[in-house]
Amino acid sequence: MSMSLSGPAQPAPQRKRSFARIITNLWLLAALVAMTLAISQQRPQLLDPGNIATVLRSFSIMVIMVLGLTWVIASGKIDVSFMQVAALANMTCAALLQQGWGWGAAIAAAIALGLVVGLVNGGLVARMKLPPLIVTIATAGMCASAAAALGKGTVIRIADPGPLRGLLETTLFGAVPVIVLPVLGLCLLAWYAQERLAMGRYIYAMAQNEAAVVAVGVPVGRIVVLLFALSGASAALAGVLLAANLSSGQPTIGGAYLINGLTVVLLGGMMVHVGKPNILGSVTATLFLGVLFSGAALLGLPDYQRQIIQGALLLTGLAVATGAARMHAHRRKGN
Amino acid sequence: MSGRFILSRGAGRVVAFAAMVLALGAAFTLAEPRFLSNANLAGIARHMAANGLAALGLTFVVIVRRFDLSLAGVAAFTAMTMGAVIAAGLPLWVAVLVGLAVGVGLGLVSGLAISRFGMPDIVTTIGVGSICAGLAFLYTGGRSIFQNFFQSGITDLNDARLLGLGVSLWFLLGIYGLAWFVMHRTRTGAAFYATGENPVAAYYSGIPTRRYVTLAFVACAVCTVLAVLLILAESGNAETNKGANLMMPAYAGVFLGAAIMGGTSVLASFAGILLITMLLDGFALMGVPYYYSDGVVSLILLGGVVLFSDAARGWLAGLLVLLPAKAPATQGEKRG
């Protein structure tokens, strides 16, 4: 089961090459701007400071959720447990607060739990050589189950808003929640690690040919464990932010995020690096999806139509990325 | 090929499976004597029919080394489609044909995208599943469809009996028998296995591997439609969440079965889904909340693949001399 998007080299006409480059570098950003303009023509409320703040708030949470996932998918693996890890962290945080724990301790415990799930995923994939999909389907089921069991199947309310609430609610210039700043800082850090550290190179090399990377002496097993652990921890952090944002623990909050998260990562994979999920792409795609959802809600589209649009978007992104990766492979071969 | 291998060499595995069924049955009977009542056994047979068909569909896809995560979405959309046809007053067979046609179409979309255009299987099927889940709302905006269900005779699929057993169980056995024959006794089945084991070698042996991958996704969607048909027959209405509970048992059944029987096969999936259905029904009978039973199924899925993985087998072989010296080394579905 290879998640790598680069298929076998296919002969492609010469003129398509530079076209592929333009698509992959600017497509999504241009689409984001065009879509924002188009929707704000119909519904000027889209650009109200209050609406921008709402979009950016869910953007921040979503970016954190897919930060680790981006690299897991970039390395040619898959993690479908991230949204349930977030749900479990969300419920753990709420349950511990209900028990009288402080916010600091509850946050630490929830993130530690996410880290543990990530380590289990990574360990089973790297050491036991089990298929990532099966491992993470199973851990997702267990996390969802544990999340529901924590609240006996119902929502846990959080009385004390806590310190994160301030970060989410306070806005700069009335439109930018403060939380955006640390989130973007984290993204920059991740971008640096991906672009300038050896680890980032290894991630993409693994997607191409894991055996070769092992053969040159890279500790691939340890990197896989690290990537899954990061995915678990960042999803758990998102779950904690959701707890603060919603002032409650929601056991079934995970479900919707699976397709959102994958759409964001795959759509982002069309940008900057051809056919390869990357941090900058994920951030842009998250903003794209956030604006799209906000616009769809303002235009009065029902939920199911949004779901259809999103699925179509995911498939389109995937098809374009697959096609671009093929052209790219051809170009490298041609030179 | 693989099936014959399992049948002849795997007597120990069959005994182990029988022991697990007996142990599970005994444990549930001790905890809740009603487990062996006729009503409960009939319930297990009914649920097994729906779960088993979904698991069978997944088996084809897993044999060609792909995954299909569109099960729930395809189930929801085809449930509402068949419901809408029945509600429109058309006869049952038209509804079934329309449902099957939609299933074939959806399977072709996923299968062609994956085999022809080289799109990654997991994300493609998640996307197709999401679109289908959205499309399921098109007919009624999400309201349940129940008109004409009793007049159409669909509930007979659930209630009618033949030789003392429910019709749905015969239906399941018939389709499994057919699938077993095709997959383990014909060249077509061998071609499916070859496509999964080594697509390049299969291709140069003259097997149109892309066609078999597409076919596997079509078979999966068709089996899902049949599973949904049984669920509609049992509940007597169509809702958009029908089939939401098909996916997890199907995966658990296929991979647990493969772990016990030493490879993915039609019989292995049958064995796996029998265990999973017994477990789910037993828990439901004992009044265990749904959220615990989901967790236990996940735990068993993970436990099964871990315990029977190559790595674990290596460690166990080092620890226990009791294990058979020649543990069949199937690399099967355990490879990433």
UniProtKB/TrEMBL annotation, chain A:
The keyword Iron does not apply. One of its GO terms (cellular component) is plasma membrane. Keywords: Cell inner membrane, Cell membrane, Membrane, Transmembrane, Transmembrane helix, Transport. CDD domains: TM_PBP1_transp_AraH_like (cd06579). It comes from the Bacteria. This is Ribose transport system permease protein. It comes from Gemmobacter aquatilis. Its main location: membrane. It is a multi-pass membrane protein. Pfam families: BPD_transp_2 (PF02653). The chain crosses the membrane at residues 20-40, 52-73, 103-126, 133-151, 171-192, 213-242, 254-272, 279-301, 307-325. One of its GO terms (molecular function) is transmembrane transporter activity. It is found in: Cell membrane. InterPro entries: ABC_transp_permease (IPR001851).
From TrEMBL, chain B:
It is a multi-pass membrane protein. GO terms for molecular function: transmembrane transporter activity. InterPro entries: ABC_transp_permease. Keywords: Cell membrane, Membrane, Transmembrane, Transmembrane helix. It is found in: Cell membrane. Pfam families: BPD_transp_2. The chain crosses the membrane at residues 47-64, 96-115, 122-142, 162-183, 212-232. One of its GO terms (cellular component) is plasma membrane. This is Ribose transport system permease protein.
